[in-house]
Write a structure and sequence with these properties.
Layout: H1 2-20, H2 27-42, H3 46-68, H4 77-116, H5 119-125, H6 130-166, H7 173-181, H8 186-212, H9 218-247
Length: 248
């Protein structure tokens, strides 16, 4: 019974994506919607991304220096480990999990409210492809801004590590710089960016599906928002496992 429900949901999701991923009828209106979604979903999330990444970078550096580094290890180990963690997992995978809670619930609740207030039905009556009009700008906006947010996250995490060097005096700036520069592999950065494209599509499309297909009242909108965050988070974790294996 549960597998049947999953298959039905998958079929409805694929049908919705088939309606969504088409050429917009009015490109000027689409461009306006696309710009608004970039501001709402991306620019408004920069603050929380920078704040969380700054403190995570600082905490990682402190934990490695205090609890792991020993006399048998070089002094630059803390900087090297901080860089690798930020590049390989936190700034791409964990940050996208955090954004699925903020952005995903926003998308699901917005579309769910439009559904229960019959705004989507009104668009359909006017002959507008509501899925394409409402969902495609969100998907493309997420695909545009998430890689940028991942890059900002890496930079903010490194600044947090330097804060421990200059303010907390946990490690010397010279040792931290040596660790950040040691054996740098540029592909690790691009691997995080590539993974972020997949995560961005998952967040936007899954959250849009749950919001667009809401039936009922305001209680169902809240449930759809929760389901969107949970499902997108699980899919991000599964896809992260496979993408890491493929790209490594």
């Amino acid at each position: 019974m549960l597998i049947y429900r999953w298959l039905v949901a998958l079929g409805r999701y694929l049908r919705l994506m088939g309606r969504t991923l088409t050429v917009p009828d009015r490109l000027r209106m689409f461009g306006r919607q696309y710009y608004q979604e970039i501001i709402q979903l991306g620019v408004n999330s920069i603050g929380i991304v920078l704040l969380i990444s700054f403190f995570i970078g600082a905490v990682i550096c402190i934990q490695i220096k205090v609890n792991i580094q020993s006399a048998w290890m070089p002094f630059w180990v803390s900087g090297y480990t901080t860089r690798e963690i930020m590049l390989l997992e936190f700034s791409s995978s964990i940050m996208c999990l955090i954004l699925s809670g903020k952005v995903g619930s926003n998308i699901a609740s917005e579309l769910g409210t439009m559904r229960v207030t019959q705004q989507i039905d009104a668009l359909e009556i006017m002959g507008v492809n509501s899925a394409n009009y409402l969902i495609l700008p969100k998907i493309l906006a997420m695909l545009t801004v998430i890689p940028c947010l991942v890059t900002f996250s890496v930079g903010s995490g490194i600044l947090g590590a330097y804060a421990t060097a200059y303010i907390g005096h946990i490690i010397t700036p010279a040792d931290l710089t040596a660790g950040l520069q040691h054996d740098f592999t540029q592909w690790f950065f691009w691997m995080g960016v590539i993974k972020s494209f997949f995560f961005a599509f998952i967040i936007a499309s899954v959250s849009s599906y749950y919001g667009y297909t809401v039936r009922g009242g305001s209680v169902e909108v809240g449930k759809a928002s929760t389901d969107a965050v949970v499902t997108s988070s699980v899919l991000i974790l599964f896809s992260d496992m496979f993408l890491t294996q493929m790209l490594s």
